[in-house]
Amino acid sequence: MLSVLLAYELSSDGGAVVEAAKEKRAKAKAKGRPSPGTTTLASQEVLSMLSRIADFDKLQRAAYDAGYNAISVPLSRVSKDMVREGFTWLKAIDGEMVKKVPKPETLEALSRSFYEVVPLLDSEGKEAITTRDSFQRRLKAVSMLSDIEAAHSQWRVLLADDPASQGSKLSEEVLQQLYKSLKCDLRAESPGAPAWQLVEKYLASSFTTSAPPRIRTIFGIEKPQEVARYQRFASASNRMLLWQGAPLTSWLSLLAGGPRLPPKEAPESGYAFGKGLYFFNAARPALPKGTPALLLLAEVALGSSRQLNEPTKGVEKLPQGFQSLHAIGAFRPSLSLEHRFADGTAVTVPSGSLREVPGASWGQYDEYVVFNTAQVRMRYLVEVEEGPPEP
C-alpha cells in the first residue's frame, strides 16, 4: 500500500520535475561528470543516518497515523498555503473552544472549513472538533504536514529516485544528492572522542533513577548559513548547550533549515510560554517516543532570561534587557561545566545530575525559550536507542 501511495504521488504531481531530475543525473553520468550532489561526499555513517530519516515507509506511516489522506492530496502536493490555512482554521477553533460557552454551530462551521483544506481518512470522520483530544490530533496532522512542506525540495530529490519501484531503499547517489541539498556538514564522532564523552555524560545526567538510552551515533553539525546568522550572538553571555527533540519525519526540515518558529497562524494551545523555540537542560523531557530516536544538542544564546513558574500570556514580547525565558522546573542539574569546541567557542553545559529544588516550579524540568532563530546554533545530532533493562 505504501509503495502504491508513492507511485500515485509520482504520477499525479510534479512528474516533469521528477523526470527532469532523473534526466539531469543521466546526462551527467553520460558525460563522465559527477551528478549534482556528489561533489561533496558524505561518509557512510552519514548516509546510513540519512536513509533512516528519509524513509518513505516511515513518512507514509506517520501520515496514516495522523489520519491524513495521502490519496486525496499526495504528500508531494502539500503547499505552504495548505499548511497556513490548516493552522488558521485550527487557531479559530481553539479561540472558540477556550470561551466560557463555546457555540456548537460555530465549531461545526469552522471544522467544516478545516476539513475542506486538510483531507483526512474516512476512518477519522468529519465530526465537529469539540474536544481537546480531537483538536490535538488535528494539530499533530498539520504540524507533520508543515515539516514535510519545509523539506519539500529534499523530498523532491528522493522522489526522483523512483522509490515505488525500489521499496524504501535509496541509492547512494541519491543520498549524496540529498546530503548536498541540506547545505549542512555532518561528521560522525568516534566513540571515546571528547565530543562523545561530553554527550554521553550529559545524556546520562538526567537518568539518575533509570538506565539512560544507549548512544548509537553522534554527528557534529556545521551549517554555514546558520553559523553566519549566529555571529552576532556568538560572544553573548549565558550561552548553553541544550537539548531539543523531534520525530524522525521532522529531521529533513530541521537539517535543511534549522529549528523553525511556529507560524503566526498556529494556535496558541500547546505553547505554554509563547510560540518560540523550546529547549531543555535535561535529555529526558526532550526524548521523542520510539527507538531509535534523534535528539538535537544546540548552542543557545540565552542572554538574560526572564524567569517564570506558570504560563503567562504575551510573553513573546520580552521586557527590555531580556533575550529569553526560563520556565523553572522542580529538578535542575547540580553542576554546570564549561566546554570549548574545536572552533574555540566556549559554552556552559549543565551536565550535573538532577536534583530537586524547593520552591514554586512550572513542571518537572527546566525549559528555555527563545523567539529569535538567530540565537540558535545546531552542534550535535544524537541518535539513541533503548538502554539495557533496569536491574
Short overview:
By secondary structure, the chain is an alpha+beta fold. It is 36% helix and 19% strand.
Question: What's the structural blueprint in terms of helices and strands?
Answer:
Elements: H1 2-12, H2 15-30, H3 44-53, H4 56-65, H5 80-97, H6 104-117, H7 132-150, H8 152-159, H9 172-182, E1 185-188, H10 194-204, E2 214-222, H11 224-230, E3 239-245, H12 251-257, E4 277-280, E5 293-301, E6 305-308, E7 324-327, E8 329-333, E9 337-340, E10 346-349, E11 354-356, E12 363-365, E13 367-370, E14 376-385
Parallel strand pairs: 6-7, 8-12
Antiparallel strand pairs: 1-2, 2-14, 3-5, 4-13, 5-14, 7-13, 8-11, 9-10
Note down, in words, how this protein is organized.
A hairpin with a 5-residue loop joins strand 9 and strand 10. The strands form 4 sheets. This protein has a 5-stranded antiparallel β-sheet. The chain has a 4-stranded mixed β-sheet with strand order 4-13-7-6, with no helix packed on it. The protein is of the alpha+beta class and 391 residues long. The protein folds into 2 domains: 2-181, Poly(ADP-ribose) polymerase, regulatory domain (Poly(ADP-ribose) Polymerase, domain 1), CATH 1.20.142; 184-385, Phosphoenolpyruvate Carboxykinase, domain 3 (Alpha-Beta Complex), CATH 3.90.228.10. The chain has helices spanning 2-12, 15-30, 44-53, 56-65, 80-97, 104-117, 132-150, 152-159, 172-182, 194-204, 224-230, 251-257; strands at 185-188, 214-222, 239-245, 277-280, 293-301, 305-308, 324-327, 329-333, 337-340, 346-349, 354-356, 363-365, 367-370, 376-385. Helix 1 (2-12) crosses helix 4 and helix 5 packs antiparallel against helix 7 (132-150).
